[in-house]
Structure formats: structure tokens, C-alpha cells
Amino acid sequence: MILFPAIDLKDGQCVRLKLGDMAQATVFNDDPAAQARSFEAQGFEWLHLVDLNGAFEGKPVNAAAVRAILGSVNLPVQLGGGIRTLGQIEAWLASGIRRVILGTAALRDPALVREACRLFPGRIAVGIDAKGGRVAVEGWAETSDLTAVDLARRFSDAGVATIIFTDIDRDGLLKGLNIDSTLELARSVAIPVIASGGLASMADFHRLVQPDCQILEGAISGRALYDGRIDVAEALRLMRRTS
């Protein structure tokens, strides 16, 4: 099981939001590339990047920061936020991004997801962000009538590499992962699922290594990492033990 440290990019800085609210951003590092190097030095094996401005504006905005990160570490990187066209997907993959995450596009343009999966097998992830159990898009500014499970099932045969499931109601609040909803989603499709939103303490890691969570690919951690609430070495040891 993989632990993905999150680098959320807003105005070229590394931040964390509360409940996806851009007005509630805490800056943790004004040098995202340095933050990426720190995560690599701590022993992480992947990076999870989100272009927050891009998610709201519908186009890549923090490209310079992403490129700086790619030039600073040797870790595989997955990136989401504002990626809405095949050309953008191709450009990011060509630049060194290992896996592109499609969120709003998955709801608005499912044909794009299918075509991207066909052209770039194993390199397309779907981000499903839920608020009150319903899928939220456009940087979480809009909530649809579709459930997370319903959206996931639309891509059950598309060749999606992984689904990243975020419980927005917990994101940035350190309330703990929503394991029940994440497992419900993971059991509904054969696509691997990554848990995100609310990871708060070592208790979450002890929960993740229980037998029923072994169907998950991993989990994403943001604020708890930056706040020093988890023992990184112990968390990585626990997660790797389940691999």
C-alpha cells in the first residue's frame, strides 16, 4: 500500500485548504520543489500534486511549479487540477508526469477519459471528490446529483489506472479518513482506489492496514504531514508491510 504525500499548489506555493475553500488556504512552503525534495528524502515513493488554481479555472495554472518539482526529484508524480483536454493530458505525460488525474472531466466528458485510457494505458486516474456523498466538480465549487459509486461504475471497463476518492467534508479538517465510504466505493468496482481527505493521525494508518482495507491501493496525506501529526517512518513501515 502506497502513502502519497500531497502538494497542493496555489499561486505557486504549497498550501492546504479546509473543505476545499480557496479562502481558507494555509501556506506551508513557498518553494514546492524544496517540499518535494523533502518528501523524497523522507522515503516516500510517489508524489500527489494538485493545481488548485487550475481546478477552479479549468486550465493548468501552476505549470512552472510542477515543472520545478519534476526537475527536482526522481519520484513518480501524479497530477490533477484543470486538466480538461487530450492535448493537456499528452503534454503533461510527455513532460514527465507519470499519471494524470481527471476529475471534472470525468463527469463532464467521460468520452475524454475513455480515449485517454486507450491512448495512455495505465497512466490515467479518475478523481472522485464527494460532498455529502455526491460528486463535486470545478474545484469542488459545484455539486452534482451523481453518487461517487455511480460515477466510478461508468468507468468500470475503461481501463482507468486508479480512482482517487476524496471526502470533501473531511478534507483539511483532520477528522480521519472516511473508511466506510471509501471501502463502499472500492468494493463496487475492480479499479484500485486511493483514499483521501481527513487523514489525521497514526490511528488512520493502523486502520488502513486492517484486512478489509487491503483492497485499497493507498492513501493520500496532506495537512497531517505538514503539521507533524504522524510519524513518517512508522507510517511508511506500516503501509509497506501491507504490500
Oligomer: single chain
Major β-sheet strand ordering: 1-4-5-6-7-10-11-12
What form results from the Cα inertia axes? globular
Q: Average pLDDT, to the nearest integer?
A: 92
Describe this protein with a few key phrases.
single chain, 243 residues, alpha/beta, TIM Barrel, 11 helices, 12 strands
Would you write up a description of this structure?
It is a single chain. The protein has helices spanning 32-42, 52-57, 63-70, 86-95, 104-108, 110-119, 148-154, 179-188, 202-208, 223-226, 232-241; strands at 2-10, 13-18, 21-29, 47-51, 77-80, 99-102, 124-131, 134-137, 142-147, 162-167, 193-196, 216-221. With 243 residues, the chain is an alpha/beta fold. The protein has a single domain (2-241), classed as Aldolase class I (TIM Barrel), CATH 3.20.20.70. The chain is globular.
Secondary structure layout:
Elements: E1 2-10, E2 13-18, E3 21-29, H1 32-42, E4 47-51, H2 52-57, H3 63-70, E5 77-80, H4 86-95, E6 99-102, H5 104-108, H6 110-119, E7 124-131, E8 134-137, E9 142-147, H7 148-154, E10 162-167, H8 179-188, E11 193-196, H9 202-208, E12 216-221, H10 223-226, H11 232-241
Helix pairs in contact: 1-3
